[in-house]
Design goal:
about 270 residues, mainly alpha, 8 helices, about 0% strand
Length: about 270
């Protein structure tokens, strides 16, 4: 991307992504609690005072308030601006790589779903079906639109559907095998649905890469946590964030990872 265009465009993309991240904070908090996403407006969870316009500015609002409610001075978790900033940076990375295309719009939707699902799973050990199912439908729509651009709508849709089915089967199989080995439930049903959603968005090849990365990173995290005695053997921990991280790594560097793997292990291909 031309540096002049990037210098002009990226600040707007960052601001837009931060605003989306601010809404994701609402989704992450309210959806599992069964609360409305639009009413009441954002407010302090302790004194319930409605946030003003300046207080509600993504990232900057938290810094201006110095991490405390203006009215009751209760601490405001730093997680809120971190989610806003992370979403903004992901939006910038997507735009930098895919530029002014429909793919950019689609992947902005995908990373938004992944941020929300990751944090909800981290908080509640659940992956809401309303998000995984809607994400799967949007993934198939995305495949249809991309296929339409090259007059291959049916092919892209079939790939998305087949990859979604593969995601469910693959993680059901992994969960079944893990349950036998560990003698307890290894994966929740939401993980299979999230894998199906990722299959619809990324296709079967990148779904497999995402799964491999997620399992590898998850195993390293679990092993490290047990070594540090932060986690006991058999203790549950959310797998959704690792699937989301694997998907994001695949989104940006999947082709490089696959090419490097083939070059090292199958140099004759």
């Amino acid at each position: 991307m031309d540096l002049l265009i990037a210098s002009i465009t990226l600040p707007f993309v960052f601001a837009f992504g931060a605003c989306i991240g601010s809404f994701l904070n609402v989704v992450i908090y309210r959806l599992p609690a069964g609360l409305s996403l639009i009413h009441p407006p954002s407010r302090c969870p302790k004194c319930e005072h409605r946030l003003g316009k300046t207080e509600n500015v993504p990232v900057l609002g938290w810094l201006w308030l110095r991490g405390r409610c203006r009215w009751c001075h209760a601490p405001i978790s730093i997680r809120y601006p971190l989610i806003e900033a992370t979403t903004a940076l992901l939006f910038c990375l997507v735009f930098w790589q895919f530029q002014f295309t429909l793919v950019t719009l689609g992947y902005w939707v995908l990373v938004s779903w992944l941020v929300a699902l990751s944090m909800i799973d981290f908080d509640t050990m659940t992956l809401p079906g309303s998000l995984t199912k809607s994400g799967l439908v949007l993934g198939l729509i995305f495949q249809g639109v991309i296929g339409w651009q090259t007059n291959q709508t049916a092919d892209y849709l079939m790939t998305g559907i087949g990859s979604a089915v593969l995601g469910i089967w693959l993680f059901d199989l992994i969960g079944f095998g893990g349950t036998i080995i560990l003698k307890q439930q290894a994966l929740g049903g939401g993980d299979s649905k999230l894998a199906a959603m990722l299959g619809a968005w990324l296709g079967w090849k990148y779904l497999l890469l995402t799964s491999f990365l997620a399992c590898g990173i998850g195993a390293l995290f679990g092993g490290g946590a047990m070594l540090l005695r932060r986690l006991d053997r058999g203790d549950p921990f959310p797998f959704g964030p690792f699937l989301a991280l694997g998907a994001i790594l695949t989104l940006f560097w999947g082709q490089t990872i696959v090419s490097t793997y083939i070059r090292i292990f199958f140099p004759m291909i």
